Amino acid sequence: MPPAHRRQGGFTFLWLLFYVAGLGVGMAALGTLWHTAQQREKEAELLFVGDQYRRAIESFLKVVPPGQASRLPQTLDELLLDPRFPHTLRHLRRAYFDPLSGDAEWGLLKDAQGGIGGVFSLSDKQPFKTGNFPAMYDNFAGRTAYNQWQFVAAGVSGSLRAMRSDGLAEAGVSLLDERNSSEPRDVKFPETPNTSDPTRISRIFACQKAMEQDYHACTAKAMGNGDVLSACTDEATARHQACLAGI
Predict the structure, then answer these.
(1) pLDDT digits 0-9 by tens, 144-157
(2) Please, where are the H alpha helices in the chain?
């Protein structure tokens, strides 16, 4: 092969090497962007699901059968079918998986009687989202692990322990939510009227169903955008408060 042809072949080979290297860098960057977008979507879903459990626990705590004392649920299954009532009463329409792990195991925040006052993800990964949370979860800002996003029901008094669903203590998880203390917070939480009247209970759950539909719509609208999700869920919470106020 003449020298000129050899030089041309060498340049073509070098160009091909640079092209392959550049393609590899581009694919790696695309993979990183895809992973980040997927993780942010899971974060938004965790905020929605955790909020559903929080609201369900509040409902269980405040909707009390005649002649019985208010208490927290002993298991998450009691949110799906309240054993205190002779008729079917659901505080949660269905069980949710932890979006980060993909399974049904949650961390549980329990009181001294074993009642569940809140839930949290068992993931110790570092969140991408560090601010711009919905007002009721402003204490999530700056947290360094998902298991520090603790969804605690309003009205829970006394200290709570971090437990796994299998009953084992969850090591390395501190209780960071100020609502676990006796000090009141400035944030106004949606209140579920304490009642044993069947008609009012039906209207309460109509409000909750509408709220859940609003939150599903918010998750779809936000597509992992924390600012959009925060604004949308704040509006949904205001509508839920107005619905309960009219009962």
Answers:
(1) 999 999 999 988 86
(2) 3-62, 77-80, 198-222, 226-245
